[in-house]
Design brief:
Shape: globular
Distance between the termini: 29 Å
Largest sheet: 5 strands, mixed
Helix content: 25-40%
Order of helices and strands: EEEEHEHHEHEHH
Strand order of the largest sheet: 1-5-4-6-7
CATH class: Alpha Beta
CATH architecture: 3-Layer(aba) Sandwich
Number of helices: 6
Radius of gyration: 16 Å
Number of strands: 7
Structural class: alpha/beta
Amino acid sequence: MIDRKKFASAEGLRRGGYILAEAESVRTGSGSDRVRDSSDDIRLILIATGSEVSLALEVREQLQKDGVPTRVVSMPCIELFEEQSQDYRDEVLPPAITARLSIEAGVRQGWDRWVGPKGDSIYLDRFGASAPGDLALKNLGFNLENVLKHARALL
């Protein structure tokens, strides 16, 4: 479940992909820290589809604590996202931000276009793991530690 009071509404689903959680920057000033959303300060974009979104949000939370402004993009339908205007796609995935990581418990095919030549993907391109879903995914690299390792390597 996504807390829609904390994160973006589900309206973006209609466009195939949308900014679910904006990067936050901590600025110091007059003796106190304040947090602000700012697309100007993005250092990393995490892109996830369905079940991987909660993991992306967890990774974002840790990176934010470490001072890395991180945006999470929910992209449940690549085909719909491709149909959007270039301006909208660039708003969601700014071309200047090349540190991008897709998290997809499926094949990598198609993700290179969205992560770009300097990005990376965590994906699953094989079958045969037998375990409860959460345990299997964790052992296949869909866990906080592995995603953080890949994310930090992009910075």
